[in-house]
């Protein structure tokens, strides 16, 4: 008996599809096994609110357990290598670095104005506490202190959102292999037509 050429061609196509799908499934499973864990901030840092403390964040790197926290650095620079693959996380981290830079400049302005005020006290031989230069220095210092409140309001939130975006992205990647079939094969319909058989396991 001669086999129908079109049926033979269809069977070959189904075999190719099965091999490609199975290879993709195996590759995705391997990626899932090697996928890094989430980044975890210290409990205190994870709950910082608006206008919270401005000291460096501490975090557990992906795959690290226990209490082996490391500092993220003043600008969050030690987190950047871990977040580099997530554009949304990097954008939030850039905002955090921007706010920390503005905060640093603001502190320098405050310290500088305070220094000018002190230098003017005995600048003319007699003690002076409210000459024109000192008035300007007091105004700059007061403005700097007030500006600090607005500068620091959302600074911590930017870094927290950077970590959250990274962790959310990792969770989505780990979900993809679960949507792929656990087994792939060939079957035959009652009419004799070849079928591609797929099976999923609920986990």
Automatic annotation (TrEMBL):
Keywords: Signal
Domain of life: Bacteria
Protein's recorded name: DUF5683 domain-containing protein
Signal peptide: 1-32
